[in-house]
Amino acid sequence: MSETPGEAESGRRVQAVQISCDIIQALREKDGAGVSELAEHLDRSKATIHSHLTTLADNEFVVKRDDSYEISLRFVDIGEYAKSQVDIYEVTKKELERLAEETGEVAQFMVEEHGRGVYLHKASGKNAIQTASYVGNRKYLHCTALGKAILSQLPEERVEQIIDRHGLPQRTENTVSTREELFDALETVRREGVAYDDEEVLQGLRCVAAPIKHANGDLHGAISISGPTSRFKGDRFHEELPEVVQGAANIIEVNATQL
Amino acid sequence: MSETPGEAESGRRVQAVQISCDIIQALREKDGAGVSELAEHLDRSKATIHSHLTTLADNEFVVKRDDSYEISLRFVDIGEYAKSQVDIYEVTKKELERLAEETGEVAQFMVEEHGRGVYLHKASGKNAIQTASYVGNRKYLHCTALGKAILSQLPEERVEQIIDRHGLPQRTENTVSTREELFDALETVRREGVAYDDEEVLQGLRCVAAPIKHANGDLHGAISISGPTSRFKGDRFHEELPEVVQGAANIIEVNATQL
DNA sequence: TTAATTGTTCGCGAGAAGCAAACGGTCTCA
DNA sequence: TGAGACCGTTTGCTTCTCGCGAACAATTAA
Questions:
Q1: Mean pLDDT of all residues in chain A?
Q2: Of A71, A152, A213, B92, which sits with the fewest C-beta atoms within 10 Å of its C-beta?
Q3: A226 lies in a domain?
Q4: Has residue A79 been placed in a domain?
């Protein structure tokens, strides 16, 4: 079984570490901040915040610029490392580029972590539209084609755990909002091999996703192609694109077994 | 003045936070590890390591997979954010892609932080060679063309501070190894507008870099083109490429003033 | 000059955090 | 089928850390 079964509520925590995590979170939300501002925001003394920031700066997790502290580029380094640890990352990236060029649309790659979906790559073809998603972005799994493709590969109990943890927040009126609806949808995905998003996230945006079946390392991922409803309709939407996406997923799977 | 003047030796630290930072560092070096392994490596009790890992997992900085803890993809998210905070990032990225296509070589973008250079983007043209550098990678500034281009824009006292902090470790026999040599080199860069790397880092690899003059936010960066000595020689190396790189840097500067 | 901001330093007391040891798994090998 | 040797996890206890408040510089504004 992958990751922590449910959220581990038990066990001791280290308060000081929690404070530093909160500081990083706050620095991100505020695009950098000073000691006093953080102290007020987190309801802690200035002295506390100060010693934490100094420690974090020592370790190059934050940078001090004049009198403002900001998130350091060290995160870029570690983030890039984290991506590289995903064994199918390189193969998938190449395949996505090909897919984007072939279709002219946007191709994306998502993996599951902590019960949510993380975008790991985005390739844009000639006619690619702008999408709100960016690499690193975390989305709930039940409300995107990529997410549903991933969920379709997980054992039912894991899906239950994820719902318990994150719920089924409703993005738009088309989002699945009950467990039954979701499990039905996942069954359909398993049967057809692809997941669809028909304007469920954004008006006018359609999306076709296929899971990457690769239980190795308990890592579950999916790839997709997105585009405007005007181009995503008829045979192209229901036959051509699903076939292309599934084909790409297949190639990745084959390459992955050789790792 | 940007960042901390010299390393801030003074002030209090938070030991617990330091331990967590060490854990993350260790997880990265070891590509994930268990509690016992970390406890031994960091010379701490298992209980301590465990409570730290639990806290870090709560905050999604690490993931527990079976009995191994690993660096989480949350770093991808924060890293991507950190990049986006660099105001010239988007403009430079576009310009790099153009540069790579036009020359067929490798084009790169580096900024300074904590006295070292961080690669933020890499674009590859048709004939691009493989280079060891990757996005997020941190290099000493004195031993690459990009680094020297950056240093040439910093006030002398800042350069002194950086040398005090990091020294001038010698990569190859061609690396500058004394302060005088370095300051002479920087003077040349300022005069010519470009910095060269003539097989100083790697046998057979040459590189031309130009600083991006843009004091805004105290952010200093540079862009470069790298390629094999076989193609980087004669007029192309000493005139054509320097001109192209400087031109690109100029375009970025102009676009940057409009931010 | 004064007043109101900063960030920084410091002494102190409370409680957090680190340790050791015990506990409950799982796996291997006899 | 056990014994033993790992593993991660839990728990009490003691100590020393760390968070607080207040004082201290250093800017900035009025």
A1: 92
A2: A213
A3: yes
A4: no
